[in-house]
Amino acid sequence: MNAQLAERVQRSFSRSFRSYHDSASQQSQIANHLVHEMRTGGAPQHFAFGLEFGCGTGHLTQRLCETFEFRSLMINDLSPEAEQTAYAVGADFLCGDAETLNWPGQPNLIASASMIQWLRDPAAFLRKAATALTPGGWLAVSGFGPEQYRELVKVGSTAKAPGLCRSEDLAAAVRDELEIISTGDTIREMHFASPRKVLEHLRRTGVNGRAQKGWTKTSLNQFTDQYVRYFGSETGVSLTYQPTWIVARKRD
Ligand SMILES: C[S@@+](CC[C@H](N)C(=O)[O-])C[C@H]1O[C@@H](n2cnc3c(N)ncnc32)[C@H](O)[C@@H]1O
Q1: What's the CA-to-centroid distance between 3 and ligand 1, angstroms?
Q2: Which residue CA neighbors atom 3 of ligand 1 most closely?
Q3: Residue 85 Cα, ligand 1 centroid: separation in angstroms?
Q4: What are φ and ψ of residue 157, in 5° steps?
């Protein structure tokens, strides 16, 4: 991640830290889904050392701690506020950019939900994770695909994350070292009363809808008109999520 993007992403998530947890219903479902796929895929009950990247307010951290036992768990985030998440579950906290940090120890679980889309090179992150895992270790990672926020892309927003990738890309990155247990993606449409409500949702979940630009009355009206013209219906306007995920196991 380049330093400028890391700083912008960190500021945006730090600002939204309080509102994120309750507003991020999609991310909460994704965390549930990852843990479900681990369980049905035969993940063990006990992990010696778990390492989670981009923990945020802890949707995935909580599910992992409810479902599995860890002799030691270390969770990471770019935003220092996420130390509260570590405190809440008794994990160690590692603050910084997952892409450039030195990763500690020999994890037998590497997990991350809704973070890799912010990385410059998610495939390199996954390859590094595959290498870092001990034999028999598990990988459980989700990101977002190219259809993520397609409405915003169409109306010219700069909110698009740099590392959107398809589930095939996730699998291709680790296939040489890991056995793929489960991978896929889904399209989920959320509905909002108006484009302004979409912007509020993005702000509360830490994704600034117009990343570098401030709004003027004219640009906001233009955004609203276009959004309604392309994506309006009697129920309001849509916003598309495309979660993608991979659960895989390192060969013994
Ligand atoms: C959408 S939130 C997801 C949080 C949590 N995993 C969840 O499922 O709700 C993305 C999180 O990733 C963090 N993040 C973004 N880029 C990161 C990076 N390069 N290294 C570590 N954390 C990062 C953000 O600060 C934010 O807390």
Answers
A1: 15
A2: 114
A3: 12
A4: -75, 155
- Distance (angstroms) between ligand 1 centre and the Cα of 224 equals 28
Q: Distance between CA 170 and CA 166 in Å, rounded? A: 7
Residue 89 pLDDT level (bands cut at 50, 70, 90): very high
Distance between CA atoms of 205 and 152, rounded to whole angstroms? 15
Q: Where are the domains of the chain?
A: 3-145+161-187+242-250
For the 3-145+161-187+242-250 domain, the top CATH level (class) is alpha beta
Ligand 1 atom with minimal separation from the 98 CA: 20
Phi and psi torsions of 161, nearest 5°: -75, 150
Residue 212 scores a pLDDT above 60: no
pLDDT band at 209 (very low <50, low <70, confident <90, very high): very low
CB atoms within 10 A of CB 218: 8
CB proximity list for 112: less than 8 A, separation 6 or greater:
52, 53, 54, 60, 98, 140, 141, 142
pLDDT tens digits, one per residue of 129-186: 999 999 999 999 999 999 999 999 999 877 678 899 999 999 999 999 999 999 999 9
pLDDT score for 208 = 61
